[in-house]
Design brief:
The complex is a heterodimer of chains A (281) and B (161).
Chain A (H helix, E strand, L loop, with lengths): L6 E3 L4 H8 L6 E4 L5 H6 L7 E4 L9 E4 L2 E5 L4 H6 L1 H6 L1 H9 L3 H6 L2 H7 L5 H9 L2 E5 L4 E5 H4 E3 L2 E2 L6 E8 L6 E7 L9 E7 L5 E7 L6 E6 L7 H14 L11 H21 L2
Helix pairs in contact in A: 5-8, 10-11
Chain B lengths: L1 E8 L2 E8 L4 H8 L18 E4 L2 E4 L11 E4 L12 H8 L9 H14 L5 H7 L11 H20 L1
Helix pairs in contact in B: 2-5, 3-5
Classes of the chains: A alpha+beta (281), B alpha+beta (161).
């Protein structure tokens, strides 16, 4: 059970929610899906004095395609993203990433905005968003701004969000039709947190690719690959694996894996992601 | 700090005064005495606390009760029809889908959710669907068998209807 007292607010509009955050009070936590926040509170890892739930705010979960981009509202649940027909058709790597999160129960409640704002290196979306070149829309009571994934993720569970700001939506440029894609992750068992993740997106003509690696540093890291890497041959894949291991030098170490293990697995999963993505061209 | 909470549980409406800190699992078990929902890890991994909220399975230890105000909740107690077990419950009884029973209510609700979405799932899909429900006793084999049997029983029921 949660032992520290807190006030609970359930605003019914985004403006009301932003007003509640407006004081810039550090002891306020935003509750979206709660699949990370509530366990942390139950473990006594955080003791917010105020909780602002977004679950009564309408219209923050819209999913739509316009202007060559996919727009997803921050409170959209993983399950809906995982099964959304237009996302499956136009950004299938996002369907893959969303389907992989946690388990059925977690996906019914967890949200994309909550996951991104939490910025756990083990999470699926941060890596996928980095590969996709996503832009994040932030709002405060008085202002708004847009950040790239690279500018948004700063360190382990640390983002550029100011205390008075909310991540309200995510904008993903549509990959060209026929792109190769893959989202691969190492985890001990199904349902367990990933240890290392790799998302690969390959241009239909194999001219270039974006490979994002997660779980190996505080934030996802991005490797931009050229056509010479993308012929699918052993030498090319070996060189990708080598680049991934270099990118993962100084990798995180914890109970799930030493730095050396994560670094080695970065190479393995980079290879797997690129191979799988080439197979989907 | 207390606040008012409205919940419909297994078809009955309740108005309660609950602590802001209370998780749904605590309200169900301690206030409403629906002790079929179990509290295992308490941090969203094991799934023993799985209930349905507005038709979707969720881990009730990770839901602040106030955050599901006005929700319709179904617990394991809401599945049977009087003395008649739900076909999924019956299948678990007939096919040894449980030993200690601690994971079972959550496991059954996850199975009900799966079979509502896919009446004839292959084994891999069954295993994927219960990946949020941990069992320490059975090794999952008879749980999968029970769900397979339940799927057959429900499809047979559908055909008769």
């Amino acid at each position: 059970m949660i032992t520290s007292e807190f006030e609970f607010f359930a605003p019914e509009s985004l403006d009301e929610a932003l007003a509640l955050l407006g004081s810039g009070d550090e002891d306020v936590k935003v509750l979206s899906g709660g699949m990370s926040l509530v366990p942390m509170m139950r473990l006594g890892l955080v003791h917010p004095q105020k909780i602002v739930s977004l679950n009564r705010v309408q219209g923050m979960d819209l999913i739509e395609i316009r202007d060559d981009a996919l727009f997803i509202g921050a409170t959209a649940r993983h399950a809906r993203i995982a099964t959304h027909g237009e996302i499956a058709a136009r950004v299938p790597v996002l369907s893959m990433a969303a389907s992989a999160i946690g388990d059925v129960q977690i996906r019914h409640r967890g949200t994309i905005g909550g996951s991104l704002a939490h910025a756990d290196p083990a999470a699926d979306y941060p890596t996928a968003m980095t590969a996709l070149g996503a832009r994040f829309h932030l709002r405060s009571a008085d202002a708004q701004r847009t950040l790239t994934a690279e500018s948004f993720f700063l360190d382990v569970m640390t983002t550029a969000l100011a205390p008075e700001e909310l991540l309200v939506g995510i904008e993903i440029p549509l990959p060209p039709a026929g792109s190769g894609y893959a989202h691969e992750r190492l985890r001990r068992v199904e349902g367990a947190y990933p240890i290392v993740l790799a998302t690969a997106l390959i241009q239909p003509d194999r001219s270039s690719a974006r490979l994002a690696l997660g779980g190996v540093a505080g934030c996802p890291c991005l490797l931009e690959l050229e056509s010479t890497h993308l012929d699918g041959g052993d030498t090319a894949l070996a060189s990708i694996a080598q680049r991934a291991r270099e990118a993962a030098s100084g990798a995180l170490a914890d109970l799930n894996g030493s730095a050396e293990y994560r670094q080695a697995m970065a190479g393995v999963y980079a290879r797997r992601a690129v191979s799988a993505a080439l197979g989907r061209l | 700090m207390k606040a008012k909470l409205n919940l419909t549980v297994n078809g009955r409406a309740h108005e309660l005064l609950v602590d802001t800190r209370a998780a749904l699992v605590e309200v169900l078990r301690d206030e409403l005495r629906f002790t079929g929902t179990h509290l295992g890890c308490g941090t969203g991994s094991c799934g023993a606390c799985t209930v349905m909220v507005n038709g979707e399975t969720m881990k009730s230890c990770c839901l602040l009760a106030l955050d599901v105000d006005h929700a319709e909740v179904v617990t394991i107690e809401g599945l049977a029809d009087g003395d008649r077990l739900h076909p999924v419950q019956q299948a678990f009884a007939d096919h040894q889908g449980l030993q200690c029973g601690f994971c079972t209510p959550g496991m059954i609700l996850s199975a009900v959710q799966l079979l509502a979405a896919n009446p004839d799932p292959p084994e891999a899909e069954i295993r994927h669907a219960i990946s949020g429900n941990y069992c320490r006793c059975t090794g999952y084999h008879f749980i999968v068998e029970s769900i397979r049997a339940a799927s057959a029983a429900l499809r047979k029921q559908e055909q008769k209807a």
